[in-house]
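Hi V.,

Quick status before I head out on leave. The structure for the redesign project is tokenized and pasted below; the design run finished overnight.
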């Protein structure tokens, strides 16, 4: 009798083990399908966010996670319906953020990290006055997209959250940048007063009054202080005209012929214009590409890169550029 009970118990364990093994294999195969779908819609992981996968929810299987790709979201929904799976995927930006899905960096230098942890790898760095789009909130972190589309995590206190109107107002009124490697905002117009915050090169500020030596500065979060006038530069608005572009193309063809590049190569390329009030040239994000060919015109103080894009557009690759709200 004891032998029969023991055998029955072993059979139950074996069947349960086979069931679990079969379930795990099914999840593994389904997740491979999810990965293939993700690869179709997520071309560059630094410019998109996706954490979708299939997991067990009690006795059921569900697709869960987050993504910034609307096309992937829709495809996953179809995939879920076809297999009768539960669907628990959040399309970013998170709707719970409501209208306040934008932010302005309010610290001098802000690391963007791959994961919401101070130990995580830094993928980029933002500076005072840069604009971001907020995608999701987790504990003390925001998942954000910066002004040239990179995605990463930043700490919540480092950014002033606002609506699209707040971004428009900031970009319209913040017409000055810091032109020194390091500067300081003081509580009064003397360097012995209490420091409000430090500043780095190309930090963007709103200035409403300039005296002989000091300028009254407004920070993104509303703090007010004083900056040395000599540490600031006015942001010049870009000037576009057809003749300028034609002259650049002509110069590019001349330089390309000297470099033994074919006319076909030149005709298939267009100009990305990077307006830089002063050198140096800032790092180019991984998603952008340009040839070694560059032209500097001393009259406009601009650097022009030959890129493989299909339209003529202002490149947003430098943190020194005034960034628009188009971050999503």
């Amino acid at each position: 009798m004891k032998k029969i009970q023991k055998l029955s118990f072993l059979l139950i364990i074996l069947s349960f083990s086979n069931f679990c093994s079969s379930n795990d294999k099914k999840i593994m195969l389904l997740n491979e399908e999810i990965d293939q779908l993700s690869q179709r819609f997520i071309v560059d992981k630094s410019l998109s966010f996706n954490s979708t996968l299939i997991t067990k929810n009690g006795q059921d299987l569900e697709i869960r996670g987050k993504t910034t790709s609307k096309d992937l979201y829709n495809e996953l929904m179809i995939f879920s319906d076809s297999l009768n799976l539960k669907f628990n995927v959040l399309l970013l930006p998170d709707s719970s953020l409501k209208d306040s899905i934008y932010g302005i960096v309010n610290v001098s230098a802000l690391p963007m990290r791959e994961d919401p942890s101070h130990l995580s790898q830094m993928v980029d760095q933002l500076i005072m006055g840069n604009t971001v789009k907020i995608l999701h909130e987790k504990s003390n972190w925001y998942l954000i997209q910066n002004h040239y589309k990179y995605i990463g995590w930043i700490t919540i206190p480092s950014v002033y959250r606002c609506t699209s109107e707040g971004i428009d107002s900031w970009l319209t009124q913040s017409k000055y940048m810091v032109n020194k490697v390091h500067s300081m905002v003081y509580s009064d117009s003397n360097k012995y007063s209490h420091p409000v915050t430090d500043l780095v090169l190309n930090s963007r500020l709103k200035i409403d009054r300039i005296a002989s030596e000091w300028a009254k500065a407004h920070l993104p979060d509303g703090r007010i202080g004083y900056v040395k006038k000599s540490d600031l530069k006015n942001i010049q608005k870009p000037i576009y005209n057809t003749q300028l572009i034609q002259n650049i193309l002509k110069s590019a063809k001349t330089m390309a012929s000297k470099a033994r590049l074919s006319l076909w190569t030149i005709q298939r390329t267009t100009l990305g214009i990077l307006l830089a009030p002063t050198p140096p040239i800032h790092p180019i994000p991984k998603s952008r590409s340009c040839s070694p060919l560059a032209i500097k015109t001393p009259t406009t103080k601009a650097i022009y890169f030959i890129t493989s894009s299909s339209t003529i557009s202002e490149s947003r690759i430098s943190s020194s550029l005034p960034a628009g709200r188009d971050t999503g």
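Above is the designed sequence. The chain has five helices and 21 strands.

G. will cover questions while I'm gone.

Best,
W.
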